[in-house]
Design brief:
about 45% strand; three-stranded antiparallel β-sheet; mainly beta; 11 strands; Jelly Rolls; 1 helix
Length: about 190
């Protein structure tokens, strides 16, 4: 079962910083892949310091979602993502990457699959966070905000994801795709 954690920013300890001015200063000094909790801590720091504010978001091909890469190196990447009405990632995993994210504007809804029952849903508002490992499957979609925004941190960088879709016979299949492709519900 996926190990997930949800916390509000005030429950997360601040990271030790080399300098307090930039996103790169949030990267831990160790050389290993970051844990889900470390990814969440960095997302919370970016959110709390407003380091996502004023970042120009690039529209995707569908013009329903925009995003900006805030930082990347060989073991971590940080993004700010926008969410607009009717936008959904569909159910997906994060391949070999751990993830932590924090909602910074509006509200998004997270869904998780359950066996033989409808997905469970959780509304995530400003300040709400999630952290999960590589076995985590979920769907994110817009709830409120024009747009809703969230900061996501992946370690290692999101090389590929698994997109879950039903085939013509109603069987759930996992389709591997690039981690830089826009995820969609359909």
């Amino acid at each position: 079962m996926a190990a997930i954690e949800q916390r509000r920013p005030e429950d997360v300890l601040a990271l030790p910083l080399v300098d307090a001015d930039g996103i790169a200063s949030l990267v831990p000094a160790h050389d290993r892949i970051l844990t889900p909790a470390e990814c969440r801590q960095i997302a919370v720091e970016i959110a709390g310091r407003g380091l996502w504010e004023g970042v120009e978001l690039t529209p995707t091909e569908s013009h329903t979602r925009a995003y900006a890469l805030l930082y990347e190196d060989e073991r971590i990447e940080m993004w700010v993502l926008s969410w607009l009405p009717h936008h959904s990632t569909g159910f997906h995993d994060h391949g070999e990457s751990n993830v932590g994210f924090c909602v910074v504007q509006g509200t998004i809804v997270e869904q998780q699959l359950r066996f033989a029952e409808p997905p469970c849903e959780l509304a995530l508002a400003v300040g709400d966070t999630r952290a999960a490992g590589t076995d985590y499957i979920h769907c994110l979609e817009w709830e409120t905000g024009s747009p809703a925004l969230s900061v996501h941190v992946y370690s290692p960088p999101l090389t590929f994801v698994g997109q879950y879709r039903y085939d013509d016979e109603g069987i759930l299949r996992r389709e591997a795709q690039s981690g830089r492709d826009e995820l969609t519900k359909d």
